[in-house]
Amino acid sequence: MTTRKHRKRQNLCPICGELRREPGLPLTVPFGIPTYWSPAEALAVFEFIDEMRDMIATIYGPQLTDAAHQQYQPSSTELALASEDERPF
Q1: Does the pLDDT of residue 50 top 90, yes or no?
Q2: Dist CA 36 CA 21 (whole Å)
Q3: Which of 9, 20, 60, 62 has the most CB atoms at less than 10 Å from its CB?
């Protein structure tokens, strides 16, 4: 009996007490995303995040584009190394 109770407790969420739907999965994944949401709950959060992304892109679109170009533009050192790699033997 002790083993059965232990197994049931092991599959419960320590925060809300709900039974985890996927016992093999960890309780959360990076960023604290629970692994026990129902598909409807996960879809609601996904749609919310998607709407937030659209709003942020609408408001900050040009700034985001500029920031992305600056962040991913190769440095002069990286460009120099790349040109050295292209030299013939």
Answers
A1: yes
A2: 6
A3: 20
Cβ neighbours around 36 below 10 Å, total:
19
- What is the end-to-end Cα distance of the chain in Å, rounded? 74
β-pair type (33-34, 28-29) = antiparallel
How far is residue 19's CA from residue 36's CA, in Å, rounded to a whole number? Answer: 8
In sequence order, what are the beta bridge partners of 12?
A: 19
CA gap 54, 19 in Å, rounded? 34
* Average of per-residue pLDDT across 12-28: 67
- Mean pLDDT estimate for the chain: 77
Note if the pTM is more than 0.85.
no
CA distance 74 to 71: 8
